[in-house]
Amino acid sequence: MYQEKIITPPSGYLTFTLFLALLGGGIYALAVRYFGTGASILAVDFCLVLPGLIINNPNESKVLTLFGKYVGTVKTDGFFWVNPLTVKKKVSLKARNLNGHQIKVNDKLGNPIEIAAVVVWQIQETAKAMFAVEDYLQYVTIQSEAAVRHLANIFPYDNFEDEEATITLKDGAEKVSTLLEAELSERLSRAGIQVIEARISHLAYAQEIASAMLQRQQATAVIAARKLIVEGAVGMVEMALARLSEKNIVELDEERKAAMVSNLLVVLCGDRNVQPVVNTGTLYN
């Protein structure tokens, strides 16, 4: 495995001055009909001096190889001169976004879901990026998809079917993002790539079960709401009976209490407006 070697070549301004001087000397030699001398000077100037001049922009690097051997990486921005025989490959050090495609995968419980992730990454070690993998851009794309698939397989979408699940894809966004970032960092370290951030950008049930899961969620919400309503209604009935007994407003036997509880529960738990009925007789007639 190649380790990155950072080098700082000499400034290119002096070499560029030499290039201009040789260019002028070659043209002058040709002008005074010293064709051999002029041609030789221009050949040296354009074949050995000029190809060694490089410009390195901010957040950019040049990876240098000489006859198949790694020489080093220039990361300092500026104007430099290097061995003209080296092969110079530009590698950007800027942060990049990978907006992953939506993929269909089964979660821990086997439910088909659609999931996608956004990954922010940048090259940390240029030598690994250039020599450890064939194409680091393709490598990032494939490994990111593999990491998202693996993450979806080890966690359920939600805890409706697995109530003991402490982490779900739907509700554990921060924890899931942390785990995804850690796994991507491990996978991409081979290519010298640093993962800055990784987050789930899309999460949904697959179309074939989306409607059924929506109905299940709605039913769960209705049941939870009804449960809360019933608990509140029972408390209110209990409070009403206690206050009536405490204030000695009316004497209620067990049958009358049962009728009152029934009426109050109907009023409090019903989902429609109650139509009052005035009883002009007695409970026993």
TrEMBL record:
Keywords: Membrane, Transmembrane, Transmembrane helix. Signal peptide: none annotated. It is a single-pass membrane protein. The chain crosses the membrane at residues 12-31. Pfam families: Band_7 (PF01145). One of its GO terms (cellular component) is membrane. Its main location: membrane. It is found in: Membrane. Residues 51-217 form the Band domain. PANTHER family: BAND 7 DOMAIN-CONTAINING PROTEIN (PTHR43446:SF1), MEMBRANE PROTEIN-RELATED (PTHR43446). This is SPFH domain/Band 7 family protein. It comes from Pedobacter metabolipauper.
